[in-house]
Every structure is written in C-alpha cells, then in structure tokens.
Amino acid sequence: MRIVLIGPPGAGKGTQARFLAERLSIPVISTGDLFRAHVAEGTTLGRRAREYMDTGALVPDEVTTAMTTSRLAEKDTSSGFILDGFPRTVRQAELLHQALVEQGTALDQVLAFHVPDDQIIRRLASRRICGDCRLTQRTDPADSGEENACQACGGSLQRRDDDREETVRKRLALYTEQTAPLLDWYASRWLLTRVTATGLIEEVTRRVFAAVLPSTVI
Fold it and tell me: Subunit notes for this chain (predicted)?
C-alpha cells in the first residue's frame, strides 16, 4: 500500500506511521528524517533545507520534492510506503502524483490526523529527544536532572528548537495556510480518510488500523 499521512506538527503521525509500517511491512519515509540526514551530511539540499527548518518555516517545494522522490526510487519501496510529512502543499501533491504516474503507481489512501491547536502546543512543549539513542519521548517541561534522563538508555534528553512555543505557533499557522488545502485536494480524488488523533496512543492506533485495514482487530 502507498499511504500519505497529513496532519499538524505533533499530531502523532510519526508514532502511528511506525505501527502501521510494522503491520504492512513497508518503510516509513519521513521528510523530517530526510531533512536531518541531508543536513548532517552537509549536502546542498541539506544546507538549503536548514535555513528554513531553523525558523520553523516550510522547506521550498523543489527541495522537499527532490529529497522525497529520490528516496521513493529505492528498492525497498516496491511493495509500498508510508509518507510522513510529504506532501505539505498542493504543489507538492501534484509533483508527487506526477512522479508516481511515471513509476506506473498511485497512492492508495491519505490519512488526515486532527488534533486541536492547544493540545498540539502542550504536546510539543513536553517532547524531548535522546542525544544518544535518538528516542523521542515526553517529559514534564518543569523536570530536570535525572527526571529528564532517557527512559531507554539513560542519555541526556534534548529539546528541538522547532518545538518551542513561538515556533510551534508559527508552524501551525503555516499548516493552516499551506497544508490544510490538501485535505480538499485529496478528498476530491476520493483518497482522504479523516482520523481523530486525540486520546491515548492505543486509541488512535485502533482508529488508524480501522481506516486502513478495516477487518483488523488490535
């Protein structure tokens, strides 16, 4: 299956993408991971992307599309994939559609995650990433010292710059302006399924699986 996940930052797309990928045995392609890999490697695309990522702005369509379509050409996507974070604009969706047509394939489904803005801000205020094992987890923002150690390896937890409240609000405004129109674009093509992404992770997982694999019980 070829699936796209759409939703505001902090909606839980990455978590649900991993669960779905394990069940379907297909890779998750995250533009966030692609961006960070290119930035770490110092590629031309990575340097261009970082200028926008550091301010919470959307990376230009041509940069994001170049990274993503290159990844889609790899062999492990032959049975399908889950795109997390791409497309983010109607133009990117059009470019993705063209690329898939050239490969003789098409999307099967688009899942749109919905979470109110105030919950997004609270979620991201508590999100941390381990500097050692890179596991993402949530903490109490007021915690410090040992209480902020990684639950998996004990490493030091770090806060991403784009999780700070002022940057999150900017990202949400950009999502409303530039990404939300994708919902109508995909709905008009009978690909869109809306998913309420509030509540416990397990509850959201059940909704996601019911949307993609309606006969599956978890």
Answer: Monomer.
Query: Annotation-wise, does 50 bind a ligand?
Result: no
At 101, the amino acid letter reads: V
Angle between helices 201-212 and 13-24 (to 10 degrees): 50
Structure tokens belonging to residue 187: 């709905």
Cβ contact 102:65 at 8 Å: no
Give the least confident one: 28-32, 120-124, 131-135, 211-215.
131-135
The residues annotated with a catalytic role in the active site are 13, 88, 127, 160, 171
User: For the chain, how many structural domains are there in total?
Assistant: 1
Q: Is residue 152 assigned to a domain?
A: no
- Is 145 annotated for ligand binding? no
In a domain, 69, yes or no: yes
Does residue 170 contact residue 87 with C-beta atoms inside 8 Å? Answer: no
Dump pLDDT digits (tens) for 130-170: 776 766 666 655 444 445 777 778 777 777 666 677 788 88
CATH number at residue 172: 3.40.50.300
Peptide bond between residue 87 and the one before it cis (omega within 30 degrees of 0):
yes
What is 102-154 written as a DSSP string?
HHT----EEEEEE--HHHHHHHHHTEEEETTT--EEE--TT--GGGGB-TTT-
18 is in an annotated binding site: no
Residue 88 lies in a domain: yes
For residue 187, give its domain range.
2-116+165-212
Determine if residue 60 is labeled as part of a ligand binding site: no
Cβ within 8 Å of residue 1, ≥6 positions away: 24, 26, 80, 108, 109, 212
